[in-house]
Amino acid sequence: QVQLVESGGGLVQPGGSLRLSCAASGNIVSINYMGWYRQAPGKQRELVALITSGGITNYVPSVKGRFTISTDNAKNTAYLQMNSLKPEDTAVYYCKMQAKYALDYWGQGTQVTVSA
What we know:
Order of helices and strands: EEEEEEEEEEE
Number of strands: 11
Radius of gyration: 14 Å
Distance between the termini: 40 Å
Strand content: over 45%
Largest sheet: 7 strands, mixed
Oligomer: single chain
Mean pLDDT: 95
């Protein structure tokens, strides 16, 4: 079994920064990609950013140039550096890992609130 634990969320003022972490543990065989998703109240969960095992990244247009996804393979950890945060970035952020055979694992989520 695989567990994902997110951390780093919190309350930040507009224009501020946060770094989310997602630590994976357990029987990790092979990772296709890791991604960060978010879900705001009353909205569907959306992909924010993902990074493949080969290092290819993809971002939703609304965060391009502000967010950066990265991984530390030695620590089985993914990060999401979020800069220039806006109130519309407020959501619960979830980490997802897709492993071999397209098995998906999700973290429990971490709240990010951007407010003055």
